[in-house]
């Protein structure tokens, strides 16, 4: 065996659940935390979700974006397994309901310049997406981006800290190689400020802002539909009434019509030559439908949307007055009231539009009734039949409709804006600015408490890939919180022989930051490393392909090496990282500025001691040889005790159950009790 293992370790503890192949190489893959589902993004940027338990049965597929530059960079599940979040290179974030394949939310950085489009997208790509479920830890939902300064990120379950592992650069004239840099790995502890202290209030505001966002977009779309229907009404009326108007304008026919209420000989001839019963009915139906459609948009959609928006804005006024809880969150009572005034102006405009439409509709129906009567009389005269008595028609309303139809612009004033931005657009911009103000205050409240200089001189290969594997997890036990970070450096001379390092740093309690003591007096750091010696070949070492801190005690690694027959073999192995021999890191190791300094980083302190007997050889708790393919990536699901391994060609995967041995012991115990 190429590594040591515990006496009772089983080489079949990782039970093979299934294995699958795909056509397109896989770029991103994530396991559902609650169901037998995989979310996959291929290198062609097609995203799909499939059941993995039997055949790889696809539930739905999301086609690649139309724009080549908008690539999926991050993919992660919500902790309840019902929603998938996708982060794009354009800066957009889209949330999809897994059951219905519908986008339930979309976020993107928006420009504060009112002259730009309201949905103008920033060029900053999304590198990390982390779902936070309070009181539950979920640290696997991060993504590594080669070009990113941040290598890994994690957040405390109570939102009190954000932990960043940063590749920090400093310049040095001595470094001229393109494949070697003076970069260092630094752990950054961020105090989340308002995000932790006002998390309930922020959640409340977020829900209110989300509702306001939907309402303003709903109002905007409704107003756009009203304008489109109005333009459609104008174009339809123009088709039918153009010739009618030209006859009326000739030889004072309109004056004759007003005086007698009857068509002249020329108008009579027009009705006889250009109108049919079917055409007349079609004109009436289209006009009536347009009037009713506009009334419905206003009365049942846009105006109720404005009224609901007023209710939400009134709620924000109450929050503004509640200074004890909402102070410092970017709320301004005067600004909210200005949005209320704009909304009331829009409601008033809608009321005036309704009145204009109702008046126009009555005139239109009178005109249609008059036109139908005159047309019917033409048919009776042609057949030598006696004319019927005329219906009661208000000729003034008929004339009013005909007169206004000569221009057909009775709603134009309601869509013409005196300001540069239409009122519905202005509502969206001002509400977005309000929510952005809160976000800005929350972000600015986050401050850096400490830096921990872990290692210097990170190495890149010829392709610019960082030779560093890293994973992190926040563990809380017995009212103590620790940050674990496991990292392994490869292809580097400075830190040979190859080793797997685990750093454990304590996080101060919430009260510790409020005390008068210095932060460095409270924080402790311990470190250990595991030698990756090959047990079957002396002076040779193992290579770790990927690793994950599986739960609060165990880590899974993919380890590769040559066996005694000189064949390369790969294993998935489990190591209990919480029980390793940790040693105290002597100070000073906490820095306040990321720069080249005389402080000795954590790793170099241990190497300088030249005392390695306190550290560990690789001792595996359970393992399984990977014979299906050459592995490249490990994805784990600690909640369901599952592991997924991706092949080097990115076209094959295997699913493993990591809890098989425990289940077997439980079954044997139950059988003994039954006996």
From TrEMBL:
One of its GO terms (biological process) is protein K11-linked ubiquitination. Residues 188-378 form the Anaphase-promoting complex subunit 4 long domain. The keyword Cell division applies. Keywords: Cell cycle, Cell division, Mitosis, Ubl conjugation pathway. InterPro entries: APC4 (IPR024789), Apc4-like_WD40_dom (IPR024977), APC4_C (IPR056358), APC4_long_dom (IPR024790), WD40/YVTN_repeat-like_dom_sf (IPR015943). One of its GO terms (cellular component) is nuclear periphery. It holds the Pfam family ANAPC4. SUPFAM superfamilies: Nucleoporin domain (SSF117289). Residues 530-652 form the Anaphase-promoting complex subunit 4 C-terminal half WD40 domain. It comes from the Eukaryota. Residues 30-126 form the Anaphase-promoting complex subunit 4-like WD40 domain. This is Anaphase-promoting complex subunit 4.
